[in-house]
Amino acid sequence: MAEELTPATPDESEEPIKQRKNGLYPGVSDELAENMKSGWADTELRDLEPIPQAAETAARRAALSARFPGERLVIPAGNLKTRSNDTEYAFRASVEYAYLTGNQTEDGVLVLEPEGEGHEATIYLLPRSDRENGEFWLDGQGELWVGRRHSLTEAGTLYGIPASDVRELAGALREATGPVRVVRGYDAGIEAALTDKVTAERDEELRVFLSEARLVKDEFEIGELQKAVDSTVRGFEDVVKVLDKAEATSERYIEGTFFLRARVEGNDVGYGTIAAAGPHACTLHWVRNDGAVRSGELLLLDAGVETHTYYTADVTRTLPINGRFSEIQRKIYDAVYEAQEAGIAAVKPGAKYRDFHDAAQRVLAERLVEWGLVEGPVERVLELGLQRRWTLHGTGHMLGMDVHDCAAARVEAYVDGVLEPGMCLTVEPGLYFQADDLTVPEEYRGIGVRIEDDILVTEDGNRNLSAALPRRSDEVEAWMASVSS
């Protein structure tokens, strides 16, 4: 990486641009500073169109306005976070901010100011980096270092919201009067400006509302989720094609292969890829991905592509590394498949959210009793939760801009709620027999199986968004053979 510079004599009215302690240039001559101010073409973009989801983000802001009349609402994007010394993590805007604006740049803030019976929205952003004070080429976040920002005029066109300079916002918020709420946890400077104007309880109400607003997806969101799933299916195909190379290296080859698809077709992976081979499949969130990939064992691949608009898929397949299930692997896999089938069948409008979980858990409990691993009857097993030694986790979750979407929603609106058309959730039962579990026969130990699909609730039932990826054991084997041939 190159290193930043600094002006020798910054303008007294501005904060000096920070100089790297061990930079090779001690300063900037007056002649060079003057030279850098001129000779640049006009690059303003004048033929922009609003982003595709502009109508949807406007409707979301209208719903927010109606819920909190007469109150100032402040929703920050967040700031860059240091990874090490002077390098930062890749930025991802807060879900609340991106959901309401479609914008994804650091330091942005959406403010809804009460006006009449509604609100006037303004998006506060950093403007183009300054060429007069040298920021554009001297500052570590200047245009020549990290790329061009949109001008405020361009941003206003793209997002359908008037744009202002975010550097003036903190001062304005300190002077503001009247009730105000802020989404906490993303921008310490904005929160500090509001410290004597907000309460934790009122701010939590705002966060909960924005979480519950995402429970039912609009048509744009459904389209993005399908796009994410389609890319994810292609990523799984990519992995099957290189299993021989993974055997020669490690689980990292699988992770890297899927990541390439995510970066080429999307923004990123939606979460850390779980590429768990052999007994690692029994570790629910195995993301180290540094283990061996061996023929004859299973690979549990839990991965999802995130689109450029932040919507993520979340799909799991458990694959025989050599392309064929052994007898015991197939027995366990088929039990999980049967449980998932029962769970998916329970997803429909008007059903309780818990129904799909209960349906899947019942099937798994029945198999565990049938195999003699736990003493029945099944009702006793379920009442005491004895199946959980091997099923471990819940059978699914809401899906959207967060892989575990809507997490701040009230319990009565989420896990104790009722399914509605437009909700999207995962159905992902699993069985995990730990390598050191002495309560099961040796042949079970070290086998972990999870099957996960992304299910959209429709008016008349459900649609499996990830149906293009085979699930039944014989279909998985046939698919792997066709893909790898």
TrEMBL record:
Gene3D superfamilies: Creatinase/methionine aminopeptidase superfamily, Creatinase/prolidase N-terminal domain. Its cofactor is Mn(2+). PANTHER family: XAA-PRO AMINOPEPTIDASE 3 (PTHR43226). The keyword Amino-acid biosynthesis does not apply. Keywords: Aminopeptidase, Hydrolase, Manganese, Metal-binding, Protease. Residues 52-191 form the Aminopeptidase P N-terminal domain. It comes from Streptomyces tibetensis. The keyword Hydrolase applies. Residues 1-26 are annotated as: Disordered. It is an enzyme of class 3 (hydrolase). Belongs to the peptidase M24B family. It catalyses: Release of any N-terminal amino acid, including proline, that is linked to proline, even from a dipeptide or tripeptide. CDD domains: Prolidase. Its EC number is 3.4.11.9. This is Xaa-Pro aminopeptidase. One of its GO terms (molecular function) is aminopeptidase activity. InterPro entries: Aminopep_P_N, Creatin/AminoP/Spt16_N, Creatinase/aminopeptidase-like, Pept_M24, Peptidase_M24B_aminopep-P_CS, X-Pro_dipept-like. It comes from the Bacteria.
